[in-house]
Specification:
The complex is a heterodimer of chains A (456) and B (427). Chain A is an alpha/beta fold and 456 residues long. Chain A has 12 helices and 16 strands. Chain A has a domain at 101-394: TIM Barrel. In chain A, the strands form 2 sheets. In chain A, strands 1, 2, 3, 4, 5, 14, 15 and 16 form an 8-stranded mixed β-sheet that branches. An 8-stranded mixed β-sheet of chain A has the order 6-7-8-9-10-11-12-13. The radius of gyration of chain A is 22 Å and the shape is globular. Residues 1-30 of chain A have low confidence and may be disordered. Chain B is of the alpha/beta class and 427 residues long. Chain B has helices at 2-15, 128-134, 180-187, 191-204, 220-230, 243-255, 273-278, 304-311, 331-340, 345-350, 354-359, 405-412, and strands at residues 26-34, 41-50, 53-59, 72-75, 80-83, 85-90, 138-143, 152-160, 168-178, 236-240, 261-265, 282-285, 315-317, 376-379, 390-395, 398-399. In chain B, the strands form 2 sheets. In chain B, strands 1, 2, 3, 4, 5, 14, 15 and 16 form an 8-stranded mixed β-sheet that branches. The longest helix of chain B is centred in the N-terminal third of the chain and has 14 residues, at 2-15. Chain B is globular. In chain B, 59% of the residues are buried. Residues 1-19 of chain B have low confidence and may be disordered. Classes of the chains: A alpha/beta (456), B alpha/beta (427). At the A-B interface, helix 3 and helix 10 of A face helix 8, helix 9 and helix 12 of B.
């Protein structure tokens, strides 16, 4: 039995590494319609939130404001009273804080799902330094209980990435954080695909004794060699006479500007070199992820219009994470760069507001003067930009998707919890109302239900 | 008038970097003091520290008026004074960079002996982690090696975060052993194998060794390390999360009645509060754990702490989800989240101060009382709030530096800096 499994596995591995590349086809239309989003908002109708302390995501704050959501969109936002349509749900926020839904630009929910068992390690195709043919969504399990805890943390949009063992790791996918039986039912409609790439220690550590790359030099050679191949492929593809190659399709789409590069990169000097590679091959790095040393090159990032997605205080787990400082986000912001928080963690994703609060307070202690309303850009507007969905979500501007969180206290406090979370105007989570999604996996498990405290 | 003068003095004292460490002298008034003692929380309080000792704590009206000669006087009206944070478990000072094995003394995969491996022998007070941790108000910590080629990690220590060479408070504080899936993987592949090894090793602790390998499970040196555990002189810290594994640990007391057990992990501890209480077993948990992270965490709940508290089980907090090596400094945030999840502030704060200090035999730490050597932190706000930070840290009566490698990097790259020299010249 074990032998049979091994045989099957090795065939699969072979197919992924190369066999599939022989498939001759077909027109580009297939690429664009494959695995299309089937997401529909969970409810329509109208909701009026009044008497709210609104952070709108653009840097403004409205005290005693009202927010009207109609048919899944922000319909009105005002300091003045708003007359809602008949039948609208009315919520008196009673002075509570209302913000745009949080966007986690770096998540592995679903592809490194809880429980963390071997069978759930679907987040990284660690079989070759170049695996741009794989798509993160094909490893996403919609029943990961982590999605349900993330919504309780006010996270309405998630970007799920392949892991960082490879130079080219594969396509990432942007999801609505909504209950769904399928990943297609979560896909953010028309959000651009992304390409995960990785700098530094991981690729050379993983492939150093498996044929390389074994050094940062090898990493750079690997990127460049594959961009050369991609450029040649793109020329042929543009001509219409070509053999389709899934690996190169993704890279050529980057060169066409259709797929956004999301690159795992810690060190400042390394990021600067990657930006040169992007110039050499005429593509754009949309975001550096982790970017522990981004604060050293805020000016360079600004000049290149490249964002940085960072933690508040993770550090020291490897050499390239040694120079972390807690002021990374505010220092980038002060340099005029596009900065954002990210989690890379099923735990951290539940408290991204607190991660921003820590960074904000440390930045202001260091002499900056950044408001909470301004800092909220690190939680929604800037990640929306990094994912190419800034015209759709990330702020509470009229016409955008009604992704909204009502907090039970100042969200820059340890004591705050998301109370109500709306995705496209639909109430997905209601803490005080006792409504929360529960994954299939959690049913019948010991932690899911418990007697009232004191009643045991 | 007095307030005005005090404010002026306060500015100076807060900005002045601590030079050579010396016994601290300061007075803070109009502040909020968390004593963790009978006095509870005192608002509008004065704390007077002289020659490194807490000379007075009381209402600002009634406490001794501090003399201005040589004593910093701080207006503490927005500040809090608390005992230093006591980290109940981490690898602080054992790991500089996790993936660089030459700098990582957290485990010994090829060592012959295990229970006798002492964390104190690997602790580096000059690790950058120590200074980074101290700057966030953690004054003391419990450290132990991780199990690697045996169920036993080794002998744990209690250290302070002064960064000085005399910072080991107790080098032989407890022995750490893992059961559950971790222990199973070290013992040969099953939970029964792990429990069998543990019971045999505890029996070996009483054995007279003629040859070094006479023991059923423990070498002679490991048996010697376990002898004080068996006698109940130091705790046995047992890594366990599944409720049935915790019960297996508490059941050890039937065979070895003197054991003083501390469970590390305790994801499902709320399910077995009766046995924990009956066996006087305490639990170290991470209060932000919310997910069924693996098959021994299926019962994980955010109200674990609240349930342990309601049942009268002794518990303290650790920060497992933030890793053990570099971020024990996040303990106050984790405790704050426990409050958000229903625990009282008082209980949550004790779970990172007085409770772990008591569990590890450091009764003088974790509280503020007149006559004590000062181990305290002055914060610019509620210490459990993520936006608060320490402004003064005092350990063993000495004012500590809040400078770290991270703060130096931040200064060098601070965008408000007017220094136009190349970065390498900026200090």
């Amino acid at each position: 039995m074990k032998n049979l499994s091994a045989l099957l596995l090795s065939c699969t591995a072979l197919a992924i590494a190369g066999c599939g590349d022989d498939a001759k086809t077909s027109d580009a239309k297939d690429q664009n319609t494959a695995f299309a989003s089937t997401y529909e908002p969970l409810e329509t109708g109208a909701t009026l939130i009044t008497n709210a302390n609104i952070i709108d995501g653009t840097g403004e704050q409205i005290t005693g404001g009202s927010l009207l959501l109609v048919n899944g969109k922000v319909n009105q936002i005002s300091k003045e009273a708003i007359t809602p349509p008949d039948g609208a749900r009315r919520i008196d926020a009673n002075g509570l804080w209302v913000t745009p839904g949080i966007i986690d630009v770096h998540s592995h929910l679903g592809n490194y799902a809880s429980p963390d068992v071997n069978a759930h390690a679907d987040g990284n195709e660690i079989t070759s330094p170049v695996t741009s043919q794989v798509w993160a969504e094909h490893g996403v399990w919609p029943q990961d209980p982590g999605f349900d805890m993330a919504i309780a943390g006010g996270v309405t949009t998630l970007h799920i990435l392949p892991g960082s063992a490879n130079l080219f790791g594969g396509r990432g996918v942007t999801l609505r954080n909504v209950p769904s039986r399928t990943v297609q039912g979560m896909k953010f409609p028309d959000a651009p695909y992304t390409l995960k790439m990785a700098c530094g220690e991981n690729p050379k550590r993983v492939y150093g004794d498996k044929g390389g790359p074994g050094s940062r030099m090898g990493n750079v050679a690997g990127y460049r060699q594959n961009w050369v191949k991609a450029a040649a492929y793109k020329t042929k593809r543009d001509s219409g006479d070509y053999d389709r190659d899934l690996q190169l399709d993704t890279l050529a789409d980057v060169l066409d500007g259709k797929i956004l590069v999301q690159m795992h990169c810690y060190r400042a000097d390394e990021m600067a070199q990657i930006l040169d590679i992007a110039k050499e091959f005429d593509y754009k790095v949309t975001t550096f992820h982790h970017a522990v040393e981004a604060y050293k090159i805020g000016d360079i990032l600004k000049e290149n219009d490249t964002c940085a997605a960072v933690w508040a205080d993770w550090w020291g787990f490897k050499m390239e994470a040694y120079d972390a400082i807690r002021e990374n986000l505010p220092f980038l912001h002060a340099a005029g760069a596009c900065a954002m928080i990210h989690s890379d963690s099923q735990d951290g994703v539940q408290r991204l507001n607190q991660e921003v609060a820590k960074a904000l307070s440390d930045g202001n202690r260091a002499g900056l003067d950044i408001s909470k309303a301004e800092a909220w850009k690190w939680l929604s507007a800037n990640p929306a930009k990094a994912l190419g969905i800034e015209d759709q979500t990330g702020t509470l501007e009229v016409g955008k998707r009604a992704d909204v969180v009502i907090w039970n206290a100042d969200p820059f406090s340890s004591y705050a919890k998301a109370d109500k979370v709306f995705v496209d105007g639909a109430l997905i989570y209601d803490r005080s109302g006792g409504m929360a999604p529960v994954s299939d996996f959690k049913l019948g498990q010991p932690g899911t239900d418990a007697a009232p405290i004191g009643g045991q | 008038m007095r307030q005005y003068i005090a404010t002026l003095l306060a500015g100076a004292s807060l900005l002045a970097p601590a030079s050579a460490l010396a016994a601290d002298n300061f007075a803070i008034f109009n502040t909020r003091v968390v004593t963790n003692d009978g006095a509870g929380v005192i608002n509008g309080a004065t704390v007077l520290v002289e020659d490194g000792k807490i000379k007075a704590i009381g209402k600002t009206d009634t406490a001794n008026t501090p003399a201005a000669n040589g004593t910093s006087i701080i207006d503490g009206s927005k500040m809090w004074v608390t005992p230093g944070i006591f980290s109940s478990f981490s690898l602080m000072g054992l790991v500089e960079i996790e993936l660089e094995s030459a700098t990582n003394d957290s485990s010994a995969g090829d060592a012959d002996n295990n229970a006798g491996l002492r964390a104190a022998d690997g602790f580096n007070p000059k690790s950058t982690v120590v200074a980074v941790t101290r700057a966030e108000g953690i004054t003391h910590g419990v450290i132990a090696p991780n199990p690697s080629n045996s169920i036993f990690g080794g002998t744990g220590a209690i250290v302070d975060t002064t960064g000085e060479f005399d910072s080991i408070v107790n080098p032989n504080a407890f022995v750490y052993v893992a059961i559950g899936q971790n222990g199973a993987s070290k013992a040969g592949g099953s939970r029964p194998a792990a429990l069998n090894m543990l019971r045999n090793a505890l029996r070996d602790a009483n054995r007279k060794y003629i040859a070094p390998d006479d023991g059923d499970a423990a070498s002679r040196t490991d048996a010697a390390a376990l002898a004080p555990v068996l006698a109940g002189r130091i705790p046995l810290m047992v890594g366990a999360d599944r409720a049935s594994d915790i019960l297996a640990a508490t059941a050890l007391k039937e065979q070895f009645p003197k054991l003083n057990l501390i469970i590390l992990g305790g994801a499902e501890a709320w399910m077995v509060t009766g046995a924990l209480k009956a066996s006087k077993t305490s639990v170290l948990i991470d209060p932000v754990e919310s997910l069924p992270g693996n098959f021994e965490h299926l019962g994980t709940r955010l109200d674990n702490a609240q349930r342990l508290d309601a049942a009268g089980v002794q518990y303290a907090f650790m920060a497992r989800t933030a890793w053990f090596s570099h971020n024990p400094r996040l303990l106050p945030q984790h405790a704050g989240n426990a409050v958000a999840n229903g625990l009282s502030w008082d209980a949550a704060f004790k779970a990172i101060t007085a409770t772990p200090a008591r569990l590890f035999g450091q009764a003088d730490l974790g509280t503020l009382k007149t006559g004590q050597t000062a181990n305290l932190v002055v914060w610019d706000g509620d210490p459990l709030e993520v936006m608060s930070a320490p402004v003064r840290v005092v350990i063993e009566g000495e004012r500590q530096s809040l400078t770290s490698r991270q703060s130096e990097l931040a200064s060098r790259y601070n965008p408000t800096s007017t220094d136009t020299r190349a970065h390498k010249y900026r200090r």
